[in-house]
Design brief:
The chain has 8 helices and 43 strands. It is mostly beta strands. The strands form 7 sheets. It has a 22-stranded antiparallel beta barrel. A hairpin with a 5-residue loop joins strand 29 and strand 30. The radius of gyration is 27 Å and the shape is globular. The two termini are 25 Å apart.
Length: 767
């Protein structure tokens, strides 16, 4: 049943019962709930911890009767607004008017979340720490993809992995992209090959919020959810505008357009459709290495979600997305006719991807929900003259059975995932008998069963325990338990969460490693790879430092420690013509502390500050090795000032030095990056009735990794290594044509190559 309808029904029943029991009028409380001068409808106004509660009407008004004299605690909650709390004294027979002004939550919202427990629960009550970011937060730094939008979230880092094709993944707490699961509306449709090329094209106009869980979530979500998960929640039809448009262009000639509309088919079918189009087709070479600084892209994505009304408010929802992208990077002289040749180097990737997912409540007395998803990814790529042709299909289905028994909220489920993968590299060739295991990875069936018990002892104590069992066709039995505990003070100003969990990941290196995707090296396995496992210990503390009618300050801090067993390591150094995969004989550790402070001051200032300290390394045979491209310290800020119809957003992120890969002992590039940061500023005017205008500057300091480096791409003038001499072990040696003993290498990249640029955009919506 829809959460808002559930709330309305419960409030109606509760208040009707109270009204019938009332014997006489005591004190009355009434008033108006607004935000920015506009009424807030369907806000929940409660008294004395929900002993009485009402919903505001369409004009924002509320009223209570038959209240006793004395002190009363007033709380007001509304989706997309900060929680309002105050204490109010009432005298007998008093008629008190209280005007309430809510503050829009631009950063962290206190709404209902689902990612932590797979069930709807308020963020405050959830035993798993879930960070929630509203759509307004991402508008403070408008981007053309979900990948770029993650850059201003503390502890989350979009990492570019290739200077030529600009592929990337999303790191959480220092762990690489394959350890992060990306969901859309709770369904695993973004995985496998899409972690490289499929994180673009989700229309931002359809995003309601983004939920982030840091730490293992394999108990509920299975493989890939080792480092954490990102759940992109799309808008419900009733919350979307009838039509909206967001069109932006930059001084680099980038164009991004988001269009969405909702409409009805009959009385019971509601459709929400969005289109995203992005184009960048003007090559730039500011670092003067002869190669494009940023990949040229032409991308279109179409998303549609259909909600069908059923009796008893049963769910029936289906959604789909199609993405097509043509991207290329390389020599500035490259043209499509050079695709696949060796005269002028270019990396050209055609991506065609479809996704489907759905939710259906079965017609039983018990609430049993069937969820399914499917996706297909077709990739037609050329890296110079090397062809990489790949396709992948993933089918997923699960049954969920939630059951409330007193203080226990049980959730049990059955799931199965089927993955098919094939490409044209020797690693998956049917004739490559030495690579039998790699061929077995082409078809994988992963059935599982899980159970969770969420126990609410009282308003202060909550405990969630769960366990998952999976059977992998190659690796056999896999068990993933977890336990989470939440405690808060009686005034709910202090909250402590602690958790222990096990995560696992069944690696598919062909869809996760860009170097393996290119087919330029032979993929080799040492023995039979075992699934990676991890144990994570985390503690989270939050405190409401100050809260008044118009202002609040909140502090959050988390500590985490993750230890990996069977970590799968890619060895690029032993043989330059191979990638050798093996389980680590030792340990891999990710540990750190992250802290956030959010301030909302007098409806004008919104400030969000974050700092992350992390230590990510692996240890084998007594040797410690820090993880590449992983900073020890990072900080971020997002500051908004609003007055009347004007607002200013200033945000950025700061990174400490990180270890970088060098090709040889003679490589003149820096072995580690300097301190660096990206800063952005935006100005918005929203005084029009249906649209707003925004403009600003990205990368204010014009920072690029080319600073203080002789070059970024090794031997960009010889991408085929025609003038490289190798020794008998396959290692490049120094010659007059190659004084640094290098080979062509585009992987030395730790920051965006795109320098300062101006942007201008317009947003239009019709309710």
């Amino acid at each position: 049943m829809n959460y808002m309808y559930q709330t309305i029904l419960l409030l109606f029943v509760a208040n009707t019962m109270v009204a019938l029991q009332a014997t006489g009028q005591q004190a009355n409380l009434f008033g108006h709930v607004t935000s920015d001068g506009q009424p807030v409808e369907f806000a929940i106004v409660s008294i004395d911890r929900n002993q009485k509660a009402v919903l505001t009407d369409s004009l924002g008004y509320y009223r209570f009767s038959d209240l006793g004299a004395g002190q009363h605690e007033i709380e007001v909650q509304a989706i997309g607004y900060n929680l309002f709390e105050t204490t109010l004294p009432l005298s007998p027979e008093e008629k008190k008017e209280l005007e309430i002004v809510l503050i829009k939550s631009d950063v962290l919202t206190e709404e209902v979340v689902i990612s932590g427990t797979m069930q709807e629960i308020s963020r405050m009550d959830c035993p798993v720490a879930v960070e929630v970011y509203s759509s307004q937060f991402f508008k403070s730094n408008p981007t053309s993809s979900v990948f770029e939008a993650m850059q201003n979230i503390n502890g989350v880092k979009p990492q570019i992995n290739c200077n030529v094709c600009n592929t990337g993944d999303i790191h959480i707490n220092g762990l690489e992209g394959p350890y992060t699961m990306v969901l859309i509306d709770g369904m695993p449709v973004v995985s496998g090959l899409s972690t490289v090329y499929g994180l673009s094209g989700i229309p931002s106009s359809l995003i309601e919020r983004v939920e982030i869980v840091k730490g293992p979530a394999s108990t509920l979500y299975g493989s890939e959810a080792v480092g954490g998960l990102i759940n992109i929640i799309t808008k419900k039809n009733e919350n979307a505008h009838r039509f909206s448009a967001d069109i932006m262009t930059t001084s680099w000639a980038e164009v991004n357009a988001d269009l969405s509309t909702k409409y009805h088919i009959g009385k019971n079918i509601h459709v929400l459709t969005g289109v995203n189009y992005f184009n960048y087709s003007v090559p730039q070479d500011h670092n003067q290495d002869g190669f494009t600084d940023v990949t040229l892209q032409d991308r279109i994505s179409v998303f549609s979600k259909i909600q069908i009304r059923r009796k008893l408010d049963r769910q029936w929802q289906i959604a789909g997305r199609y993405v097509y992208e043509d991207r290329w990077g390389g020599d500035m002289r490259w043209q499509p006719q050079f695709r696949g040749g060796d005269s002028i180097y270019g990396e050209s990737i055609y991506t065609s991807r479809w996704e489907f997912y759905g939710t259906y409540d079965l017609p039983f007395a018990e609430k049993i929900t069937f969820q399914c998803s499917a996706n297909g990814h077709q990739q037609n790529s050329y890296y110079g003259q090397l062809s990489f042709q790949a396709r992948q299909e993933v089918l997923f289905g699960q049954l969920l059975w939630p059951k409330d028994l007193g203080h226990h909220a049980f959730l049990s489920g059955l799931s199965v995932r089927y993955t098919h993968y094939d490409d044209n590299t020797p690693a998956t060739s049917a004739t490559a008998t030495s690579d039998a295991e790699s061929r077995a990875y082409q078809r994988v069936v992963l059935p599982g069963i899980f159970v969770q018990d969420d126990v609410k002892f009282n308003d202060q104590h909550r405990l969630s325990t769960g366990c998952r069992y999976d059977y992998h066709t190659l690796h056999g039995h896999i068990l993933s338990p977890r336990i989470n505990y939440k405690w808060n003070t009686a005034n709910r100003k202090n909250t402590v969460r602690a958790g222990i969990g096990n995560g696992y990941r069944v690696a598919n290196v062909f869809t996760e490693d860009h170097a393996a995707l290119t087919g330029s090296r032979k993929v080799e396995f040492v023995d039979q790879l075992k699934p990676e496992t991890s144990w994570n210990y985390n503690i989270h503390f939050s405190r409401k430092i100050f809260q008044s009618e118009n202002s609040n300050i909140t502090f959050e801090c988390s500590g985490y420690y993750t230890r990996f067993g069977n970590r799968i390591i890619a060895d690029y150094l032993t043989d330059p013509n191979k990638i050798i995969y093996a389980n680590l004989q030792g340990k891999a550790i990710s540990r750190g502390i992250t802290a956030n402070v959010s301030l909302f001051l007098r409806q004008r200032w919104t400030v969000y500050l974050g700092i992350n300290v992390q230590d990510v390394y692996r240890e084998s045979h007594g040797q410690r090795q820090e993880q590449l491209f992983t900073e020890k310290y990072s900080g971020m800020w997002d500051i908004r000032y609003k007055i009347k119809h004007w607002s200013m957003d200033y945000n950025g992120k700061l990174y400490s030095p990180m270890k970088l890969p060098l090709i040889s002992a003679h490589d003149p590039r820096q072995a580690s990056s300097p301190w660096w940061n990206i800063q952005n500023i935006q100005f918005t005017y929203s005084g029009f009735s249906h649209f707003e205008i925004y403009c600003g500057v990205k990368n204010l300091l014009n920072w690029t990794p080319a600073r203080n480096n002789p070059f970024l791409i090794a031997r960009s003038f010889d991408p085929i290594d025609k003038q490289v001499t190798f020794d008998q072990n396959g290692q490049a040696i120094q010659t007059a044509y190659n004084p640094y003993a290098l080979t062509f290498d585009p992987t030395y990249v730790y920051a965006p190559n795109q320098g300062i640029r101006f942007f201008l955009g317009i947003r239009y919506h019709f309710i």
